[in-house]
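Quick check before the chapter quiz. The format below is the same one you will see on the exam, so make sure you can read both the input and the output lines.
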Amino acid sequence: MTAMRDWLQPHRIFLFILGLVIVAWCATTMRWDWLPKYAPLMAEGIWRTIWLLVLSVFFGMLLAIPLGLAQAAGPWYLATPARVFCTVIRGTPLLLQIWLLYYGLGSLFPQFPWIRQSDLWPILRQAWPYALLALTLSYAGYEGEVMRGAFKSVPRGQLEAARAMGMPRHKILSRIWLPQAFRAVLPTLGGETVLQMKATPLVATITVVEIYAVASRVRQDTFIVYEPLLLLALVYLCLAGAIVFLFRQIEKRGPQMRRPG
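Here is the expected output.
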């Protein structure tokens, strides 16, 4: 009931009605006759945007944890490369990283006959592996720095008490250090994931046909400008809302995970 009362606040009802009026105006006064023809391509583009986002966030987070741990508590020969990696990724545009991987690394592979004759060549000759790699490295670079702060925010007394009780290092990391650091960084991760979603249109510059590329193709084929862009904005708003909702649900379950047993 409390949640229902929150949704029935006057300003939210006004914004909801205003949104319905705008949607009704757009639906009745603008051109949407192109939509049935391009609907399958748009569905394919939305799906490609989603799996690029999910995989890059997943693999990026797997890289960000050791990057943050190395900077927070690792020896200098691990902390220094991790710090340099995060600095380079954060200090260069994502578009430049995508182009360097696709036009640089991607142009090197055809020079090796054993790569062209391998089973990986049908994959390496496509653009999406380089797009996924660039998005993953970008997410890892930013979240590696975030995880560094999260690891450092865990009270040292808890770690020292675990060591004094003879707990192995991997158990200290998996049961005390990493869970607390992850919970501390969850609100930031939600925002960073939304930013990662908004960075996915950049992969259209290397011929990856995601939802932004589909909208651009519609504009080029039909010379209709506003309708594809409005639909594109609606798709991104829905995706951002889903990401925010998902992370808020995870945050709400945080106190339950902290209870023993």
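If your answer matched, good. The radius of gyration is 23 Å.
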